Amino acid sequence: MTGLSHLDADGKARMVDVGHKAVTARSATASGRFVTTAEVIALVKADGMPKADVLATARIAGIQGAKKTSELIPLCHPLPLSSVRVDFSFDDAAIIVTATAKTIGQTGVEMEALTAVAIAGLTLHDMVKAVDPAAAMTDVRLDDKTGGKSGHWTRGAVSTGSTTGSAVIEPSSVIEPVEIVETSSAYVIVSSTSSAAGTRDNTTGPLIATWLEEHGYPTTTAVTADAAIGEALSAALAAHPAIIITTGGTGPSPTDRTPEATAAVLDRALPGVAEAIRARGLAKTPTAALSRGLAGLAGGTIIVNLPGSPGGVKDGLAVLDELLDHLVAQVAGAGAHD
């Protein structure tokens, strides 16, 4: 694209004609930072604001904003949204707002995702202004989009190498789009805010990476804060690896976002794989039932969520030991039938 799509040859504003475009599944993820005081963050976490239920109100407002995007932004097309998700996470200085919009149609949902983030941020401001009138919504940006002729675009990237490597992804990192390269490699993504900050040892990532290397997959490991798991997944998918295995962030804690980030990129679920991993863990500990991990396919990439404990990882890898080769062959088309 070398010109502005919403201007005609005479420089006049226009709505782009999308009638000739293919109907495809499309999604977009956007994010922003609501910068405020530590006092406000503590109050929101404790639901202690004078206007209660801060995050629930902002979430509903963001969803409503996405649905009304074409009414707010003049040249946007009305879209039949199939899903809008608005999530929140925290760091020391901000509430991070992330929104994912999905549709099946002839044009993308980038503006819907961005509008959801902006409206959720404005609602946060309304809810907290009595305590912090100086709060600011910053860094509203598109992080990832899929579907249509342009395929998959992501802002995120991780450092890669020909053999096992590592990278740390911060929630607010600004990273350039990545050229898509088909590989038969693997990624391990460790979702742990403390490991990303260097205050906790990363024990499960190397365990998974060694297992993948032993199965013949050159592996890169990324360590990410919980709030940046969506960026890490999008960045890894940009390289089209054969396998992505995540570890951590699968429980019921408010900061555990791995299943939500995974669901946003999956094209097809593999529920049997996730249930088999849970069943393996349940044979040893009842707390395995609390894992919300998913498994599925994002294009030609297999994604599996494993827990953050070494025991949970070992149970998951034991299940994958019996499935991986066959699953990879099936995804590649071996034995496929019309």
Structure report:
- The protein is 33% helix and 24% strand.
- The chain contains 10 helices and 12 strands.
- The model is unreliable at 157-183 (pLDDT under 50).
Break the fold down into its secondary structure elements and pairings.
Blueprint: E1 24-35, H1 38-45, H2 54-67, H3 69-72, E2 81-90, E3 94-105, H4 110-128, E4 136-146, E5 153-154, E6 165-169, E7 186-191, H5 193-197, H6 204-214, E8 219-224, H7 229-237, E9 243-247, H8 258-265, E10 268-269, H9 271-282, E11 295-298, E12 301-306, H10 310-331
Parallel strand pairs: 6-8, 7-8, 7-9, 9-12
Antiparallel strand pairs: 1-3, 1-4, 2-3, 4-5, 10-11, 11-12
What portion of residues belong to β-strands?
A: 15-25%
How much helical structure, as a percent, in the residues?
25-40%
User: How is the quaternary structure best described?
Assistant: single chain
Number of strands: 12
List keywords for this structure.
alpha/beta, seven-stranded mixed β-sheet, 10 helices
Give a quick summary of the entry:
The chain is α/β, with parallel strands linked by helices and 338 residues long.
